[in-house]
């Protein structure tokens, strides 16, 4: 078992290179894990909301996170920082896949 988050893990994505995974949690963090050593190599703690969805860019340089507070963030994993904040989405985020954000109106 790998320990690192302080709350439930809600999303996991494996890198295209298959060398690391990222995980998002209700503790408002994103962790990067080395697959071979099974160790945590990075923690992004600047997330404002609980992380519900994650997707990695095709080049494994960026992770896109989404939450149900209508916020999407793009994070640089090589030089850890927030690259973009897309917080003006009208509806709750329901998924992120292949750098595409899915948002649906819940009636």
TrEMBL record:
WD repeats: 2-43, 54-85
InterPro entries: WD40/YVTN_repeat-like_dom_sf, WD40_repeat_CS, WD40_repeat_dom_sf, WD40_rpt
Keyword Repeat: yes
Domain of life: Eukaryota
UniProt KW keywords: Repeat, WD repeat
Transmembrane stretches, start-end: none
The protein's name in its UniProt record: Uncharacterized protein
Biological source species: Stentor coeruleus
């Amino acid at each position: 078992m790998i320990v690192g988050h302080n709350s439930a893990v809600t999303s996991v994505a494996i890198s295209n290179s298959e060398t690391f995974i990222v995980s998002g949690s209700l503790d408002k963090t994103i962790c990067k894990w080395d697959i071979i050593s099974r160790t945590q190599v990075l923690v992004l703690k600047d997330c404002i909301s609980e992380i519900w969805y994650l997707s990695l860019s095709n080049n494994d340089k960026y992770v896109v996170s989404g939450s149900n507070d209508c916020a999407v963030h793009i994070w640089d994993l090589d030089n850890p920082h927030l690259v973009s904040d897309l917080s003006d989405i009208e509806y709750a985020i329901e998924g992120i896949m292949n750098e595409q954000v899915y948002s649906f109106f819940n009636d």
